[in-house]
Amino acid sequence: MQNFTFYNPTRILFGAGRIANLAREVPSGARVLITYGGGSIVRAGTLAEVRNALKDFTLFEFAGIEPNPSYETLMQAVELARRERIDFLLAVGGGSVIDGTKFIAAAIPFTGDPWNILAKRARIVSAVPFGSVLTLPATGSEMNNGAVITRRASNDKLAFMHDLLFPRFSVLDPTKTYTLPPRQVANGVVDAFVHVIEQYLTYPADAKVQDRFAEGLLLTLIEDGPKALQEPENYAVRGTLMWTATLALNGLIGAGVPNDWATHMLGHELTVLHGLDHAQTLAVVLPAMLHERRSEKRDKLLQYAERVWELREGDEEERIDQAIACTRQFFESLHVPTRLSDYGIKKDAIPALVAQLKRHGMVALGEHNNFSLDGSRRVYELAA
Ligand code: NZQ
Ligand code: ZN
C-alpha cells in the first residue's frame, strides 16, 4: 500500500426526514444563502422543507445554478453573498449545485479574479462554510473537497480542490431522489461506477481493503442501479445507491492506491464542446480507454473480470475483452449510450477535442502520468 493521508471532516446525516435536523448543523445566528438549480427542489417541495427547518435563521436564496455550473452564473451568487454579508451557504441539489457552491464559498473572500482559483490554481486561504442537501447520488461532491466549474465564454471545464471545501455536513435523504428522471438516475450510477474504476482499475498496490471495498461498490451498483430505474420509490435501493455514490468518491477507496482520472479528463472536453452530460461522456470514454490501455492495466483488468463479472473462461485476452464488453453492456442497459456516434458526434470532431486537452495541459494523464495526447486521440477514435 502506498503512503497516504486520509482526512474527511464531513458529517453525514443519512435517512428519511433528516432535513428536519438542519437547524442543529447551521451555526446559530448565521445569515444563510440557500443555493439551488433550475427548480426541481421547488417542485418536489424540498425547498419548502428546508426553509421550514431553518425558519429561525436569516435566509437568502440563489436559484439557477445549471448542470455543469458556470463561472458566469456563480459570480452572480458571489456578488449577492458579498452584498448581504452571507456567512453560511447551503447547497440543495445535485453535484452541480454543490460544486457551484464550493466555488462560491471560495470566491466570496478571494482577493483578485476568482477565475484564477481554477485557471492558475491560485491559493485559497479561506472559504465561507457550507453544507449540502443532496438530491442526486452521483458525484460524491457531498463528501469531498473537489469541484468542477465551466467557463462558457472560453470553453473551459476545470477542477479544483481544497480542504476548506469539504461540506460541514450533508443530508442524504433517499426519498429526495424519488423524483429523479430516469436519465439522471442512470447518470448517477454510471458516474459512481466510473469513480470507483478510476481509483481501482490501475495496477496492483497491495491494497486488499481498497480493492475489495471498490469491488463491493461496483457489485452494488450493478445490482441496484437497474432496480432504481424499475422501482423509483424503493427506499432500500435508493438509500443503497446514495451511500454507494458517496463512498465512491469521498477519498476512502482512493487512499493508498494509484489513481487514474484520464477518462474524466477526456470526458470534460466532450461536455464543453458537445454538451453531453458528465456521465454520458464517461460511458463513451471508459470502454475505449480500457481497450487502449489494456496492457498497462492488465493485472487489474483480469482481477476486475473475475471478481466483478465472474469471468473465468477463456484466455487472458478474451477475459479482458469480455470484461470491457460487460462494462459497455451495463451502461447500455441503463440506457446510457457508449459511442460518440450515438450522440451525433463524428470523427471530424476529434482534433478539436485533442486540442482542448492540449490547451488544458492534459498531456501526461493516468496512473503513470504518461498517457499522451496520441493515446487520447486513439481513445476518442476507438469511441467513435
Ligand atoms: O437544476 P435542477 O432543477 O435541480 O435539476 C437537476 C439537473 O437538471 C436535476 N435534479 C437533481 N436532483 C433532482 C433533479 N431532478 C428531479 N429530482 C431530483 N431529486 O438533475 C439534473 C442534473 O443535475 P446535476 O447536479 O448537474 O447532476 P450531477 O449530480 O450528475 O452533477 C454533475 C456535475 O458534477 C461534476 C460534473 O462534472 C458535473 O458538472 N462532478 C463533480 C465531482 C466532484 N465534485 O467530486 C466529480 C464528478 O466526477 C463530476 O465531475
Ligand atoms: Zn465523475
Note the total helix count.
Answer: 15
Summing up helix and strand content along with how strands pair, one would put the structural category as alpha/beta
CATH architecture tag of the largest domain? Up-down Bundle
Question: What strand order characterises the main sheet?
Answer: 1-8-5-4-2-3
How far the N terminus sits from the C terminus, by CA atoms, comes to 37 Å
Based on Cα principal axes, name the global outline.
Answer: globular
Instruction: Please name the fourth-level CATH homologous superfamily of the largest domain.
Output: Dehydroquinate synthase-like - alpha domain
Major sheet: size, sense and barrel closure?
Answer: 6 strands, parallel
Q: N-to-C SSE series?
A: EHEHHEHEHHEEEEHHHHHHHHH
Q: Helix proportion of residues, in percent?
A: 40-55%
